[in-house]
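dude i think i finally got it to work??
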Amino acid sequence: MKIRPLHDRVLLRRLEENTKTAGGIIIPDTAKEKPSEAIVEAVGEGARTEDGKLIPMNVKVGDKVLFSKWSGTEVKVNGEERLIIKESEILGIVEE
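look at this
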């Protein structure tokens, strides 16, 4: 199954957090927080203004982004969890 987000929505794959602390302590699954970093897997065509003009997306497929913990809607794609959020909920693009 393939998903193409509509309008100004983005499909994200969360990145896995480290399971060890800097001191070597292993963090159990029950104590882990959901990561707030993700890779963009698909983007919509962009938002439209009231007069119908297309506002292009700032993110593209493959970008590593930061987003707030409680944003978006979780969906399952081919048995794997994904997140669909509006582009405005993305806090920034990670540039390495």
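Residues 9-17+25-94 form a domain with the 10 Kd Chaperonin, Protein Cpn10; Chain O fold (CATH 2.30.33.40).
im so relieved honestly
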